[in-house]
TrEMBL record:
Short name of one Pfam family: FAD_binding_3
Cited SUPFAM superfamilies: FAD/NAD(P)-binding domain
Molecular-function GO term, any one: FAD binding
Protein name, entry field: FAD-binding domain-containing protein
Origin species: Rhizopus stolonifer (Rhizopus nigricans)
Cofactor(s), by name: FAD
Keyword terms: FAD, Flavoprotein, Oxidoreductase
InterPro entries: FAD-bd, FAD/NAD-bd_sf, RIFMO-like
Positions of the FAD-binding domain: 5-359
Record flagged with keyword Flavoprotein: yes
Amino acid sequence: MAAQVDVLVVGAGPVGLYFSYAMSLYGHSVYCVDPKTGPTNQSRAIVLTSRTMEMFEAKGLCGEFLEEGFISSGIRVYQKGTLIGQMAAVGDTPYAYITVVVQNKTENILNKHLEDDTGNHVHWQNELVSYTQDEDKVTAIVLDKRTGLKKQIKSKYIIGADGNHSRVRKGNPAFTFEGVTIDTKFFLIDLTVKGEGIENRIDKTNVFMTPSGHVGMIPLKPYSGDDKATTFRIFGNLDSYSRSETNNARSSHGLETSEGAPSLEHIQSHVDKMAAPFKFKLSDPMWSSYYKINERIANTFRNKRAILVGDAAHCHSPTGGQGMNLSIQDADNLAWKLSYVLKGQASNPDKLLDSYESE
């Protein structure tokens, strides 16, 4: 017998988990599926902005993120060893700073609250195969990868929170994903950094600019005072900036696993060149990846009962740490509006849901 729910959520990264949690708190039946075995064990997205923290506070989540996080108060920018600018995180908010929390912790916090606070859970190792929609429902086929069996799930709406390669978007010909491809190769790596004065660099993100690009260092842990070392996320470009004026939506966006991880020696040499005359000793890499960027947006965020959120709807450069934050804000905006519609409290349901995209 087919499962029947209010909402089928496809994808259980930070966006799908937050949306599932919000909709469950609002009293709706939610069925969330993801082909992974569980929350990620990688650091991936690490920045939470003040607006995201305000939304977490409204859901009673903020305290745990502050306990797990590290506060960064802004950005310093250097060129050839000279400080050329600083930007402080300010605003009329109790969270006038950047909260640094690695993505595996973010997902585990959200997953735990989904289970403990609402009694709901993610159906891990379950993958969307296809779906159809009519006037009053969505009918989806989901594959249980553990058993090899397929099941039918009927829902009032289907939410694509499944990233750049969204099956919800690709499985519906009404959606397109237009934009351009950035040909530049970028890297990121989490590791230990030693160097003279490193203890003075942990309060802000440090960016080192050259004519050929940049290298940035985001502190991940407080300075321990031991051997003048601390943990940073280092990121930057490895070749000159260029982009292709193409609408090839198959182009990769995000972390690149096909090339393997960048070597410590390669990144050390690159940082030596980009951050000169400052000298940093890199060691003990914990996680690293190359990544590529597309700048794309779906032609519409909603087609009837299928709605896209996060990277499924739009993707862009991770510079500034806005990717996950904008995506969680998508989920927060859509959740209360869809809840009003499902509860029959919206005088004009289509107009309210359409306002999700415009806002």
